[in-house]
Write a structure and sequence with these properties.
Elements: H1 9-42, H2 50-81, H3 99-105, H4 108-122, H5 150-167, H6 171-189, H7 191-194, H8 199-216, H9 218-223, H10 226-235, H11 249-278, H12 281-301
Helix pairs in contact: 1-2, 1-12, 2-11, 4-5, 5-6, 11-12
Length: 313
């Protein structure tokens, strides 16, 4: 027997706020960053400096994150209006301290499905019947022996190659997938080294190498050209390419500002949530002020928006 979701007024408010937040991510952040990304990647790859390559990788990483997170927020908010609660699809992936954690935070619904119905069967492990928790969620204890040998390594790289092809029938997408497989492989074998940096120090150290390498993976995703990708990656290995800037100064400024926003976002959200739960005058005033600013910016930048990036996949 079908059970209709029970109507609750709180769902209407939550749904509207999620939709407004999604619009903010799309029209205020993603679409405005898109102009810098398009112009930057239009520059011949051979003319870019190493700092330019890193800047463009970060800018496109921010654009696709805000764009896709916006789509997810709007979908979750729309469902909530009807009393339906879907699982979250992003949990601040650019704050992940390891490649494994990154894929527990990025596109969680897809990565969970890939883990349960592609990676685990290829690795010879039992298929789980719940696709939650991200690609790298720990396997069950009785599966560890099955997934620790050479078959698991083959499954890792094959899974990521297929995941790349899922995004498009181009070798650049396969390269994107294999890059991430390589990062996860490095993480797997670096256990002894990571044990030397326990606690918070280890988390910060992990973030410092995970984030830039995850961002560099977006270059083949954006260029969809292996030749261009290899040229841009190659610049990072040339010391002379680190000695000059080829883009306008505002590119680096925008990248730095957005990076600060990404780092501080979870703390701001937690603070606002705590204030909201207190239900006092200050909490209601802060919540109203933030919502007013979001609505104003949504209306200010609302225009025929660019197509959501993931609509092409």
């Amino acid at each position: 027997m079908d059970v209709r979701p029970k109507f609750e007024s709180a769902n209407i408010l939550i749904g509207i706020e999620r939709i407004l937040g999604g619009l903010f991510l799309k029209v205020v952040l993603a679409d405005n960053i898109a102009g810098f990304v398009n112009d930057g990647f239009a520059v011949p790859a051979g003319e870019l400096s190493a700092i330019d390559v890193m800047t463009l990788a970060f800018l496109f990483g921010f654009q696709i994150y805000f764009d896709f997170a916006a789509y997810s927020h709007i979908a979750l908010g729309s469902a909530r209006l009807m009393g339906i609660t879907f699982p979250e699809n992003f949990r601040y992936p650019y704050l992940a301290s390891s490649p494994r954690e990154y894929w527990r935070r990025w596109h969680i619904t897809l990565s969970s499905w890939i883990r349960d119905y592609l990676y685990l069967p290829l690795a010879g492990a039992q298929v789980e019947d719940r696709s939650t928790g991200g690609l790298a969620a720990a396997t069950l204890p009785d599966q560890r022996a099955t997934t620790s040998g050479s078959r698991a390594w083959v499954a890792l790289f094959l899974t990521w190659a297929i995941m790349g092809l899922w995004h498009g029938a181009a070798w650049a997408f396969v390269l994107w997938g294999l890059w991430h497989a390589g990062l996860i492989a490095i993480y797997r074998v670096s256990g002894p080294l990571r044990s030397l940096f326990p606690g918070r120090i280890g988390e910060v150290a992990g973030w410092l190498w995970t984030l830039p390498l995850a961002m560099l993976a977006w270059i083949p995703f954006r260029t969809q050209s292996i030749d261009e990708t290899l040229i841009m990656w190659g610049h990072l290995l040339e010391p002379s390419r680190w000695l000059y800037l080829g883009l306008r100064e505002n590119y680096y400024l925008i990248a730095a500002i957005v990076m600060i926003l990404v780092i501080t976002a979870p703390y701001v959200v937690r603070t606002l949530s705590a204030l909201k739960e207190s239900n006092g005058f200050a909490a209601n005033a802060a919540h109203t002020a933030v919502l007013t600013v979001v609505i104003a910016l949504d209306l200010l930048y609302l225009r025929p928006v660019n197509q959501f990036i993931y609509f092409q996949f």
